[in-house]
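Weekly structure sync, notes
Attendees: PL (lead), two postdocs, one rotation student
Agenda item 3: pending single-chain targets
PL asked that the sequence for the first pending target be pasted directly into the notes so everyone works from the same version. It is reproduced below exactly as submitted, 474 residues in total.
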Amino acid sequence: MSHDSDKTIWQVFNLINLAVIVYDNKNQHYTLNQHAKTLLSIEGESAVKKDVFSNLVLRDFSNDEVVSVGQLFSSDITTVLLGSEPTSQLLNINHAVVDDSVTMITLEQDRTFTEQYNFDHIISKISTKLIDIQNDNIDQQINFALKAIGTVLKADRSYLFEFNTDNETITNTHEWVNTGIIACKDRLQNVPKVELPYFFEVMNQSHLFQVNDIEQLPTKADAEKAEFKEQSIQSVLCIGLRFDDELVGFIGCDCVKTKRHWSKIDLIRIKLVGEIINNALKNINYKKKLQLTQQQLVSANIKLNKLANTDALTNIANRRFFDTTLKSEIKRCARHHQPISLIMCDIDFFKRYNDNYGHQKGDDALKQVARALESVCKREGDLAARYGGEEFTIILPASNKEQCHEFALLIQQKIKALNILHEFSSAAPHITLSFGSFTNYPKADTNMQTIIKSADIALYNAKKAGRNQICTFE
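Predicted structure, written out during the meeting:
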C-alpha cells in the first residue's frame, strides 16, 4: 500500500467506533487508532513497539491465563479481560489478515456482560475468602468486599456498621471511600440510635433503607436528613444484618457527587454482599464463642487438676501429687545416673499444740510450716508436700546426702524463724520439726516404697533421739 493510501485508511480507522490494532510482522511494530489508544491508555505516537504494552493486564477469558498483545493476533483468542478486578473490561476480538506481513484485530467492549462478569467474579472471590474467615484477616476481607460493592454500585462511599454490646449505640467499623471523597468513619463511633429514629424505625421493619434523593425524605426524618447533609450524601442504600432475626448492624452505600436512582439490580447485589459479610461475622462470632468455651474448659481443667493435686488446707502439693512426682523423679534420676533424696518431717508434739491452742491455731501453724517448706524448694523438681496430718515430705532430685542434710538444716532455721509459740513442747518453747532423710542412686527397678520407708525409719530415729533432730538413714 502507498503512503497516501495508508494515511487514508488510518483516517477511516480513527473515525469508526472500534479499537483497531494493526501488526506489521516485517517491522515488528504495532499501529493503534485513537480508540485503541484510549482503550489501552496508550499515549504518544500511533506506531509503537511491544514494550509500550508491558503494563497492560490481559487475560484470556476462556482459561483466565495472562496473555500479551502479540498473542491477541492468534485466531484462537476471541475474548479477553482487560485490567484488574473489580474494574476488568470484557473485550471481543475480531481478526483480519491484510497481507502476508500485516494482520489486524478489532477490540469491542461488551459493557453489559463485563459488568455482570465483574460482579460474579467479585461475589465468587468474596465468598471464597469469607467462607472460612479467620479473625486475623477479617478486616482486610470486609474492606475488599466494601470496595467491590461500592465500585459496582458506582457509589462514593461504602461501609459497615455494627451495634455495640449495649445495643443502644452503633459504630462504623469498616469504610471504603472513592477518590476525592472525605472519609467519615472516625466521627461515626458510638452513635446513639436515638439520634437516627426514622432510620432505625424503617430498618427494624424492613431491614432496608433506600433513598434516591435525601431531599425527598419525610419531615419526621429531619434528623437523618441533617446527618446526611453533614456528610454531603445525596443518595443512600443500606441493608440490615441479622443474627437470629435480630438486627445487629448494616452495610450501606452513599452517593456524594451525584444522586443515584438505586435499581433492583443494585438492591440484589448489595443484599448478596450483605449476606456474605453477615455469614462471615456469624462464623467469627461462633468461633470466638467456641474459643472462649475451650479456654474456659482449659481453665476449669487446670483448676480441677490443681485441686486434685493440692492440699486444701496448706495449699501445697498433696499426697497424691507427691506419689506421682516421686515415681517420675526416681525414673528420671535413674536415666541420668543422679542421686535422689527424700526428707520426711513431722511437727513435734503437734497433738499437744492442737489440744491446748485449739484446731484453728493448729491449722494456722500447719499453713505457716507448709509455706516455709515450699519457700526453700527453689530448684525445678524440688517438691514440698503434705504427707498427712502434721507430716510433710520434700523431694530433692539430683541431691546427694550432704546436700540433703544442708537442706534439712535450712528448713530447721526457717521453722525456728517462724517463732510459733509452743509452751507444751518438751523439745523447745516454739514449734520444731523432726527430720528423717534418705539418699539413693536409683535404678530402673528402684521401688518408691523402699525410699519412703527408709526416710520414715530415719524420722522415727529422730523422734526417738529427743525430737528437733535431723537423722539420716544409712
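Discussion points:
- The mean pLDDT is 87.
- Residues 45 and 152 are 34 Å apart (CA to CA).
Action: rotation student to compare against the earlier draft before next sync.
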